[in-house]
Design a protein that fits this description.
The protein has helices at residues 2-8, 26-29, 89-97, 113-118, 134-142, 159-171, 183-189, 195-207, 210-221, 234-246, 249-260, and strands at residues 15-20, 41-46, 61-64, 67-74, 79-86, 106-109. The chain is α/β, with parallel strands linked by helices. It is an enzyme of class 3 (hydrolase).
Length: 261
């Protein structure tokens, strides 16, 4: 968009382009709420984070491409992946609702009315049906719910995913051969972590390496938001990262532990 508008020069007014997505640093997320200068227009490039949780003043037009990136879990491979999938009718209505929240607006949908009526699902697939259930199963077991296959889920997950979660917890010694919670499993359930990370923390006590393991678990739990490298300040960001590696790493690790615990 910047390249196209640069080619138009003074033929159009100033265009302010603001991205918004979950891993974007907070100070950059706040830019989308700043008032638009007189004589300029603002374009917000958003993921589906903007469907329900944001209301931006002055948004009059929404362009809906009809797709989103959705996290899905394959029980057979044990892998999670972000896949580009068509949105549901409910999501389409939410996206249209972003236009004209504070003034009259319009939504442009980049798909046909036939696609909307006949090819889209009514609602988005619930997350419990497309995610790794190991953490949820461990929590349910710790609450005393034994028979998960007959449990009255609001949206029942695939049985294959439940089997996979039980197999994983058994392999981690969180469950015994009867599917009951063990002492190790009860300790694991107290950590707000993925079961594999919580087992790692619990096992570190035996090997006298808890400090190192907590540091590793903290780093693995914060995804991509530790190091931010803006395009216009890449040199400064790289210098800061070098200072992190060569400076007093103990202070940084201590801070991560405080945040983690």
């Amino acid at each position: 968009m910047k390249h196209r508008t640069r080619g138009l020069g003074t033929k159009i007014s100033e265009l302010i382009i603001c991205p918004i997505y979950a891993n974007l640093p907070t100070e950059l997320q706040a830019k989308i709420f700043e008032p638009t200068p007189e004589g300029a227009r603002k374009v917000v490039l958003a993921t589906n984070i903007a469907e329900t949780s944001l209301t931006i003043d002055g948004i009059k037009y929404v362009i809906d491409p009809g797709f989103c990136k959705m996290k899905s879990y394959n029980p057979r491979t044990g892998m999670e992946a972000l896949q580009v999938t068509p949105i549901s009718k409910a999501s389409a209505m939410q996206r249209a609702g972003r236009a004209g929240r504070t003034s009259p607006g319009m939504c442009f949908r980049l798909y046909s009315a036939y696609t909307f009526q006949n090819e889209m699902n009514d609602n988005t697939v619930p997350e419990i049906q497309r995610t790794n259930l190991a953490g949820a199963v461990l929590s349910l077991k710790s609450l005393g719910i034994g028979d998960l296959f007959n449990f009255d889920f609001m949206d029942p997950p695939p049985k294959e995913a439940l089997y996979k979660a039980l197999e994983l917890l058994y392999a981690l010694s969180a469950l015994n051969k009867h599917g009951e919670l063990t002492k190790v499993g009860r300790r694991m359930a107290e950590f707000p972590l993925d079961p594999m990370l919580s087992k790692m923390v619990v096992a570190s006590e035996k090997y006298k390496c808890s400090d190192d393991i907590i540091s590793i678990a903290a780093m693995l739990s914060v995804e991509n938001s530790i190091f931010y490298r803006p395009k216009d300040k890449q040199v400064h960001a790289d210098n800061a990262r070098m200072n992190f590696h060569t400076g007093n790493v103990g202070d940084h690790i201590a801070l991560l532990k405080v945040l983690f615990l």
